[in-house]
C-alpha cells in the first residue's frame, strides 16, 4: 500500500529528526569514552569505521553487486576512492572525535557544521564563479559563529583549545570532501555501498598507519555499551534514517531538520557531563546554524 503525501512527509520528518538526534547522541557517547574510559580518538576511529564499513557492505552490497563490481578493477577510480576514504571519511571521523576529546560533543558538533562553507567554496571554484550575495552572507555567518565559539568575542585568547578548533574544522573539511567527490568522480556507484567500502578502506588503512594492535584500551560494561551505540545508532541507524528522510523530504528540507544534531549534542553534553556554555557560545551556535537556512532558501 502506497503512502500518502502527508504520511511520507511525517515519515521523513520523524526519520530525519531521529537520525539527527542519533548522531548527536553518538557524540555524547564519544565524550563519555574519552572522559571515563581508557580510549583514544584514533583507536575509536578505526573501530567505528571498520565495523560500520563491514555492516554497510553486508547491508547494501547484495542489492548493488553488479553496480559495485567495477570498483574492484584497477583504474583511476582507485585514487579517488583513496581520497574519498582517507581525505573524506577518515578525516571527518578522526577530526570530529579528536575535537570531542579536546572540547566537548556540543562544541565539536557545532564546528563540524562549518562544512557547508567548504562545500560552497568548492562549488564556486569548480563553476569558476564568485559567491552570490546570499552565499557571502552564509560565509560571514559561519565565520562569525566560529569566531564567537572559539574566542567568546575576545580576540586576545581562545576559549577552546587550538587543537579542538583545528580538528573540528578539519572534520568539516572532510565532510565536504566525501560529499563532493562521489558526485564528481564516483557517481556510478550507489551511495550506501560506496560509503561502506570507503569506511572499510579508510578504517583498515588508518589502523595500519597508527599500528592499531599496539594501542592499549580499557572498557568496562558501560564503555562497551557506549561503543556499540556509537557504531550502530550513531553510524548505521542514523545514516539510514537520514537517507530515508532525504528520499521523503528532499535534501534541502532534510539538511535543515538535521540541524537538530548539534543542538541535541549540546543538550546531551550539558545533561550528562555538566558542560557549561556561555552566551557567546549560543550566539556562535546560532550563527553557524543560520548558514544552513540561508543556503537552503530558494
From TrEMBL:
The keyword Nucleus does not apply. It is a multi-pass membrane protein. It is found in: Membrane. Residues 11-150, 164-295 form the EamA domain. The chain crosses the membrane at residues 12-34, 46-66, 78-99, 105-124, 136-153, 159-181, 193-215, 221-242, 254-273, 279-296. InterPro entries: AA-Vitamin_Transporters, EamA_dom, EmrE-like. GO terms for cellular component: membrane. SUPFAM superfamilies: Multidrug resistance efflux transporter EmrE. The keyword Ligase does not apply. Keywords: Membrane, Transmembrane, Transmembrane helix. Belongs to the EamA transporter family. This is EamA family transporter. It comes from Candidatus Aphodousia faecigallinarum. The lineage of its organism: Bacteria, Pseudomonadati, Pseudomonadota, Betaproteobacteria, Burkholderiales.
Amino acid at each position: 500500500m502506497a503512502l500518502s503525501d502527508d504520511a511520507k512527509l511525517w515519515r521523513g520528518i520523524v526519520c530525519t529528526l531521529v537520525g539527527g538526534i542519533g548522531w548527536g547522541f553518538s557524540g555524547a557517547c564519544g565524550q563519555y569514552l574519552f572522559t571515563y574510559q581508557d580510549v583514544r580518538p584514533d583507536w575509536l576511529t578505526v573501530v567505528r569505521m571498520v565495523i560500520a564499513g563491514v555492516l554497510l557492505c553486508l547491508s547494501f552490497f547484495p542489492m548493488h553487486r553488479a553496480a559495485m563490481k567495477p570498483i574492484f578493477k584497477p583504474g583511476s577510480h582507485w585514487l579517488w576512492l583513496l581520497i574519498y576514504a582517507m581525505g573524506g571519511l577518515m578525516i571527518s571521523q578522526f577530526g570530529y572525535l579528536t575535537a570531542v576529546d579536546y572540547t566537548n560533543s556540543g562544541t565539536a558538533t557545532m564546528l563540524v557544521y562549518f562544512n557547508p562553507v567548504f562545500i560552497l567554496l568548492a562549488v564556486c571554484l569548480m563553476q569558476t564563479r564568485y559567491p552570490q550575495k546570499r552565499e557571502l552572507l552564509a560565509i560571514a555567518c559561519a565565520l562569525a559563529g566560529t569566531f564567537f565559539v572559539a574566542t567568546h568575542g575576545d580576540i586576545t585568547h581562545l576559549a577552546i583549545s587550538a587543537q579542538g578548533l583545528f580538528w573540528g574544522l578539519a572534520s568539516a573539511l572532510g565532510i565536504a570532501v566525501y560529499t563532493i567527490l562521489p558526485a564528481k568522480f564516483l557517481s556510478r556507484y550507489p551511495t550506501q555501498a560506496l560509503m561502506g567500502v570507503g569506511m572499510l578502506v579508510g578504517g583498515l588503512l588508518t589502523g595500519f598507519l597508527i599500528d592499531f594492535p599496539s594501542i592499549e584500551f580499557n572498557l568496562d560494561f558501560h564503555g562497551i555499551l557506549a561503543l556499540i551505540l556509537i557504531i550502530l545508532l550513531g553510524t548505521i541507524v542514523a545514516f539510514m534514517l537520514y537517507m530515508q528522510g532525504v528520499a521523503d523530504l528532499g535534501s534541502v528540507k532534510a539538511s535543515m531538520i538535521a540541524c537538530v544534531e548539534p543542538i541535541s549534542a549540546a543538550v546531551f553534553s550539558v545533561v550528562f557531563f555538566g558542560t557549561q556554555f556561555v552566551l557567546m557560545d549560543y550566539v556562535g551556535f546560532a550563527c553557524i546554524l543560520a548558514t544552513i537556512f540561508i543556503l537552503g532558501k530558494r
